[in-house]
Amino acid sequence: MNYIGSKVRLLPFLEHSIKSVLTERLEEQVFCDLFAGTGAVGRYFKPKCKAIISNDLEYYSYVLNRNYVGNSKLIKVSDKLEELDKLTGIEGFVFRNYSRGGHGDRNYFTDQNAKRIDVIRQQIESWKSTQEIDEDIYFFLLASLLESADKVANTASVYGAYLKHIKKSAQQDLTLKPATFDIAKNNSKVYQSDANELIKKISGDILYLDPPYNARQYGSNYHLLNTIASYQSFDPKGVTGLPVYNKSDYCSKATVVQSFEDLIANAKFEYVFLSYNNEGLMMHSQILSIMEKYGEVQLKTQAYQRFKADKTENRNHKATETLEYLFCLQKY
What we know:
By secondary structure, the protein is α/β, with parallel strands linked by helices. The protein has two domains: about 1-70 and about 185-210 and about 250-330, Rossmann fold, CATH 3.40.50.150; about 75-180 and about 220-245, no CATH class. Helix content is about 35%, strand content about 15%. The chain is built from 13 helices and seven strands. The protein has a seven-stranded mixed β-sheet with strand order 3-2-1-4-5-7-6. A hairpin with a 7-residue loop joins strand 6 and strand 7 (about 315-330). The model is unreliable at about 310-320 (pLDDT under 50).
């Protein structure tokens, strides 16, 4: 999925940096991904560590991580995927509020794809309510729908706005692709909690932190994924159809420093790794000042190309270079 702050391109750098700091084998460590997003980091380290703890406050993120990290045993669902993919679309909540045919304006999906999302989402819920599928399969199918819907969304990677005209990828018919996960022997846990509250209740070896860097709220930028995932009725607000959404203290200059220090103080992990870049709300001197109170700190950097949507009507993606910082703390 296209995702703000995705670490997919930086995974080898993260692994190399973490291994260079550890005094134990990675395979023996409990790894916590506290701001998990789409789960790229947790998925990568799942077969490499003893166990994964995954968390994010957003429900769409919980769904993805509950599948990719939480599912570890083989499931047989090919018949369910085929059945879902053959369904005829219906005029449900997504069609009525997020397609031009239903709403008259909001152009997030073509009418046909919005109807397909509705019918697939309702069928998944029906199977769950009648206990025709278990929880593992439920989240596998939901994750498959979220990723498949994202592929045909008429946006510039985020859902803060839709495009006026249907772009080429959004014109394609939605096809349900399986959200295939890695089989693993470890016993991983997935949470949907406020990071600063959860940190008081968990412990492990490696704590990986990838909080929001700036004022962009993930609850608004990915609101439609939450809407599809939860499928609860509400009154969409404004031009973009926003629900009431979570607001993070890490997206506010007034609260981010105190929230970060509280997090580090309460972390019951020997190693803490913070990903942050050169565009963040916290100054690097502030980060170092806080971390150095609790142990020995190293700093590693990696330049990489990231993509962001351009503000022209074409919404072309332009490559821009940024510098990723990995602050490495070994707590006393």
